[in-house]
Amino acid sequence: MSNLRGEIAPPSTFHLAIEPRGLFSVARLIAAAPFLATAPRGAPHAVIVLPGLGATDRSTIAIRGYLRFLGYQATGWNRGRNIRPAGADLPAVACQIRSLRETTGVPVTLVGWSRGGIIAREAARLAPDAARMVVTLGSPFAAPAASNVGAVWRRLTGEAFPAQTQEQMRALAAPLPIPSTSIYSRSDGVVAWRACQQTEGPQSENVEVRGSHIGLGFNPATLWVIADRLAQPLGAWAPFRPSPVVARLFPRTEERSGQRSGARP
Prior knowledge:
With 265 residues, this protein is an alpha/beta fold. 32% of the residues lie in helices and 12% in strands. Strand 3, helix 5 and strand 4 (131-137) form a beta-alpha-beta unit.
């Protein structure tokens, strides 16, 4: 994995142009519902699901509904639209993590989509004793500017997309003190997939799925990975290893075939 995070280019215009295919993910999700119902279940605990740039808790309704079906206490971030400056929401999210930890008596999992994943990672750093794990979906924490969201950001905030120094990018990409899973797609048309990769280690992994950025929250493979991660016993984290039954949902690539990878069959 390259250390030159700032040199990662945004996705191609082709991949951006075909992003609307993500709308079909809803139909795929409905068709996969009986299969997803068989996913592993873990000990009940609270899960905070954070939306992407410009989105609200409405965008994560499928994720939260599925997790509630599996027996988890899934909640939104309850912060309205995700458009505030970088770092503005961290204190409130960290407070939400600590509050749920105190209320439920067990650490809290965070699931963040796109920019919501970056916020989830940084909030977990502020409340590591109250957080159980972080799962991100298409979150470019390794190079936030390697995306096609600049125009969207300007429309929402009236400002230029905030630049990141090399030091800031290294800090965002630094390993978390708790287990973390980064889910990404090589055909993501919004953020560069390389910007969504973390250094794999004893508590960190990258899991590749097929599909668009806007469809990640409705992608059956994504939901299966989230369910599998949450089902792990507290303190017994291990890399994702799909069984032969679900292996077909995950890409096989030359890069992943010889590595300790989250999506290797």
